[in-house]
UniProtKB/TrEMBL annotation:
Gene3D superfamilies: Hexapeptide repeat proteins (2.160.10.10). This is Gamma carbonic anhydrase family protein. It comes from Protaetiibacter larvae. Transmembrane segments: none annotated.
């Protein structure tokens, strides 16, 4: 189903196919030959989403953009089931496997692979033809690609990337961080109350 959000309607090339149970909301442009499968959610939360030619977004994947972090998928990208991409730039011919997670401000170069349940963290930059192995974590610029048991090494890099500051504009040291974060984010998300079907 297509929804108008904040005055923007999705633009879908006539050769693209959107499954009836997929949700496409706001300033979203879907290119020729794309396939958006059942349960996928593509939501432009104040920033644009562009999906290039012949890309596939599989079942129950989530793509989200914000005003500060638009989302771009290049041509011939495969987004696997249950993958989540938030405000990132994805090059051409990229494979994002089942359950992969790509965070705000990340950039993934052409012909890269992010394998099953792997993570590309906030503001991480992967050069072309990179591989993040199954369940591993890429973090930083230049990136370190680490196994999940390397939590202290991941955190040492991730902490400096400042997730709450970058995404929510809040200092990690705020005593009631989660109270302020959830209240601020809820107000932002409440703007969907005025969405209207556009198909």
């Amino acid at each position: 189903m297509l929804f108008e959000h904040l005055g923007h309607r999705p633009r879908v090339d006539p050769t693209a196919v959107i499954a009836p149970t997929a949700v496409v909301s706001g300033e979203v442009t879907i290119g020729p030959g794309c396939q958006i499968l059942h349960g996928a959610v593509i939501s432009a939360e104040g920033g644009p989403i562009t999906i290039g030619e012949s890309s596939i977004v599989m079942e129950n994947a989530l793509l989200r953009a914000s005003a500060s972090d638009p989302l771009h998928l290049g041509d011939h990208v495969l987004v696997g089931p249950l993958a989540s991409i938030s405000g990132a730039t994805i090059g051409d011919e990229v494979f994002l496997a089942t359950g992969s997670r790509i965070f705000n401000g990340a950039r993934i170069g052409d012909r890269s692979e992010v394998r099953i349940n792997a993570v590309v963290h906030l503001r991480t930059v992967l050069p072309a033809e990179s591989v993040v192995p199954i369940g591993w974590v890429a973090v930083g610029d230049p990136p370190s690609i680490l196994s999940p048991d390397k939590h202290e090494e991941i955190w040492a890099i991730q902490q400096g990337l400042d997730f709450p500051g970058y995404v929510f504009g809040l200092d990690r040291g705020t005593p009631d961080l989660m109270v302020q974060l959830t209240e601020r984010y809820a107000r932002h998300l409440a703007r969907h109350a005025d969405d209207t079907p556009s198909d």
